[in-house]
Write a structure and sequence with these properties.
about 500 residues; mainly alpha; Neurolysin, domain 3; 2 domains; 3-stranded mixed beta sheet; 20 helices; about 5% strand; globular; binds magnesium ion
Length: about 500
């Protein structure tokens, strides 16, 4: 890409080797999760940290920092140019503020902590992991102090995952969301709603190869171009974009409960589409790809839940499912729909339905906020977790693996990440509401398998801009909204209570 501004062009030229390192790191990350022989772990770890260090050296190179600084001076920049400078300046500022020793301490603790967490989870023994969690929290508190914050130390960490997100924003979000979702859940459970009846379809074993064919058939239906995209298998599904023209997803096959595999595929495909539909002119620049984690998650959840679990979509794919999953032949379309939309307050976040999911996040948010506000010590976390599960979801974990040890995030130092999942859900509902106004009868299009209008709408409103705009700015410009939970609550109420 060439810009009007000569300084920006110099920046983009100097950025190319950094982009290339990120490209290689992304590819290595994908390989690590999919095909790498297990014994390669140590060598890969070394290569990975060396490439990260090279990247940091290039980013903090005097001349490069000077270029970015001079581009920040008042003058006329286009939105695109301003976006490029904003992204790089954020990255440089953070890297400068965090001393090398802290970065090293964190990456070392990540490896040790993650290993300890795996063992602790297997034995369901939080105390085995507690010293590592304590260490990671200490490191993160120091990092938060170095980055700086106005009101709450947790703000410094939130901002690293979602630009300008604060405790103040999230207190408002969860303050409005949590009690309303609890109320809906209670109504559903108390009334013995058909949504709460567990389906037999999740119990039978499926043929993995056949469900793999089914997932590929669904991707074809959603018009994924395999020339720029591929799908593989991993325990925890993810999306990795090497650039705008090599975007890869993974899915999971557990052998039973086939909806998990289908939903994972559609979820990751939603992430992938964001990158695939970004404007090609942004390729190999700092603004290629999505605006933020929450915006990215809004895309995956929009496809997974709002499209993928809707009656017309389930009807559309029912014949494909029946072809590959023989025991579904005895089930009606309605039974299949209820299977995809079963609501069950349960322990594990990643398996949660769309009604209860955000309650899991509310608990993690509360805990992280308390940790960084020095209101909760490590040893108090398991009990606090279980108490809140009982209060919000009505189930109390009886062992640590069902509770505090279930997620990998903390062992990887990802404090401040969880809330972006909920924000993604909220934004997906905003999108659906606005889309409905623009694309009258888009449910009919879904029923017919015509996804072009939806894809094009998403491309124009969100995808094509990459990360030129910060998430709050994009939401405001495009939808005249913020992280407003009202749309999501209305969506859930309408769908599950019919009101
Ligand atoms: Mg996701």
């Amino acid at each position: 890409m060439r810009c009007e501004n000569p300084v920006i062009n110099q920046i983009l030229d100097a950025y190319k080797p950094m982009w290339s390192l990120s490209h290689a790191i992304a590819l290595m990350g994908w390989d690590f999760e999919t095909y790498m022989p297990r014994k390669g772990t140590e060598e890969r770890g070394l290569a990975n940290s060396q490439l990260h260090m090279l990247h940091k050296d290039l980013l903090l190179n005097k001349d490069f920092v000077g270029l970015v600084e001079s581009a920040k001076k008042p003058g006329s920049l286009s939105d695109l140019e301003r976006g490029i400078v904003r992204i790089l300046d954020r990255e440089i500022t953070k890297q400068i503020k965090i001393p090398k020793e802290l970065t090293e301490a964190e990456s070392l603790e990540r490896i040790r902590g993650n290993m300890a967490w795996r063992q602790a989870r297997e034995k369901s023994d939080f105390m085995m992991y507690a010293p590592h969690l304590k260490k990671m929290i200490e490191i993160k508190k120091q990092i938060a102090d170095k980055i700086g914050y106005e009101k709450h130390p947790y703000d410094a960490l939130l901002d690293t995952f979602e630009e300008e997100l604060t405790v103040n924003d999230l207190d408002k979000v969860f303050g409005a969301l949590t009690p309303r979702i609890q109320k809906i859940l209670k109504k559903l459970v108390d009334s013995g709603s058909p949504y709460c009846k567990e389906s037999k379809l999740g119990k039978s074993k499926y043929d993995i190869q056949k469900v793999d064919e089914l997932n590929h058939a669904i991707l074809t239906l959603l018009q994924f171009n395999m020339g720029r995209f591929r799908m593989d298998v991993s325990t925890h599904p993810f999306t990795e974009a090497m650039g705008l023209n090599d975007v890869r997803i993974t899915t999971r096959y557990e052998g039973t409960d086939f909806k998990k595999s289908i939903s994972s595929t559609i979820h990751e495909a939603g992430h992938a589409l964001y990158n695939l539909q970004c404007d090609q002119s942004l390729s190999v620049t700092p603004v290629e790809g999505g605006s933020s984690l929450a915006l990215h998650e809004s895309q995956s959840r929009f496809w997974e839940n709002i499209v993928g679990r809707s009656p017309p979509f389930v009807q559309l794919i029912a014949p494909l499912i029946r072809k590959q999953v023989s025991f579904v032949n005895q089930a009606t379309d309605d039974e299949l729909y209820l299977y995809f939309n079963n609501v069950k307050p349960d322990y594990i976040r990643v398996d949660a339905d769309e009604v209860t999911y955000n309650l899991h996040i509310a608990i993690r948010y509360e805990i992280e906020k308390k940790i960084f506000g020095d209101e909760l010590s490590v040893s108090e976390i398991p009990e606090f977790w279980n108490d809140r599960m009982e209060q919000l979801l009505g189930v109390r974990p009886t062992k640590d693996s069902q509770g505090v040890l279930q997620d990998t995030h903390w062992s990887n130092g990802l404090f401040g990440y969880f809330p972006t999942y909920t924000l993604g859900n909220l934004v997906s509902a905003i999108i659906a509401s606005k889309m409905r106004k623009d694309l009258e009868g888009y449910e009919e299009d879904i029923k017919r398998g015509n996804f072009n209008p939806i894809r094009e709408w998403l491309r124009l409103k969100i995808h094509q801009q990459g990360s030129v705009y910060a998430p709050k700015v994009l939401l405001n410009n495009t939808f005249n909204e913020g992280y407003n939970p009202d749309y999501f609550v209305t969506y859930i109420e309408t769908k599950y209570l019919g009101s």
